[in-house]
Structures are given as C-alpha cells and as structure tokens.
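Batch manifest, entry 17 of 40.
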Amino acid sequence: MHQPRRTRRCNDIYPCEINRTKALSDAAVSDREFSFFAMPFNTVLHLVSSPQNVGMITRSHVAFGGQKLIFVGYDRPWQYRSGTQGFSRKLEATCEVLHFETVAAFLSWSLAESISCIAVEITETAANLPGYPFPETCNLIVGSEKNGISEDLLAACHGIVTIPQFGPAACLNVAVAASIAMYEYTRACEGQVRNLIRGHKFDTPDAAGTW
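Output type: structure tokens
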C-alpha cells in the first residue's frame, strides 16, 4: 500500500512546505523486490518556470537517487499538473518536496542542516565539470531559464560549476544541465549501487508500471 500524501508547514526560522509523498512498502512489488541507494544530494530549482523542465529535472532527480527536491523563490508550492507530469512520469510521488518562498529561508535551512550549496551556472570563475570535488552532502542548484540563478543566491553558494561546451550554442537547457550535474555528482561517489537492467530499461517500479 502507498502512504497518503501529507503536507505540513516548517517553523518560522526557515519556513517551507514539505510534501511527504507516496513510498513503496517493504512488500514485494509485482513479485519483485526493489532496493535503492539514496545519494546525499538535493536538487534545487530556483524559479525554473517551464513545466516541461520541472518534469524532466524531477525525473532525473529520481533516476540518480537524489534525496529532497527543493523549490526556491516561488509564491506557492509547484503544482504537478499534466504539463509537468508528462515529463516527470509522476515520479514526484516518490520524492520529499520542499518549498521555500525566499532565498534567505532556503539558505537558513541549508546552514542548519549543514548542507553545502553548489550552483550549476555559467560564470567566468566557475569550475569545470567533470572532475569537480563535490562535497559529500550538497544542494545542486539550477536557476530560471531566462535569468539563471539570482545574484544573492549565487553569492551565497560554496561553489559554482559549469559544463564545458564546444559548439555554437550559448548555453544548455536547464533540465539537461541539471541532469549532467547529477550524473557527475553520483559518478564521483565511491561505492554507489546502480540499478539492475532488465531488457532495455533499469529494473525499477517505474519500469514495472507500478508507479
């Protein structure tokens, strides 16, 4: 049985909303057991506005074993409607989703949780991927399609990484950039557990049609 979704408000020190979504039971799913290794990173969306991009980032976040999916700077929690779910495959139902209305609230929470903030952004001083020495626990932050990560959030980050490009495009799509950063983070983790492959898909409840 899936657990029902619950939403609650955090305290006034760093106000946010948390959606605790459905999780798999300990019982076998479709006659198979599934086990996953959660990577110690959170994915942070700072004013990403496209439903398609939010959906793709959500799907990648789940695929790479991310922990919390965090929205920063939005007036209200993101609504996963059909435009988003067509790309997320409704995998947000497996995530713990946090919403912070302000950058200050998000940074206060990150400090209290001892989580480093790493921005994925194009700047002249950014470090290149691959090979970046990610902290063990971190928030991977991507910004809006039009303006990127705001200056106040960027200035507070512990590090900035960029993805080298070689062709005549000025930048990557934000969902693509987020996915590459997640992959590079998980690739750098020692002893990570990869999902098994069954046919042409990884063996997960998503592939089995049980999510």
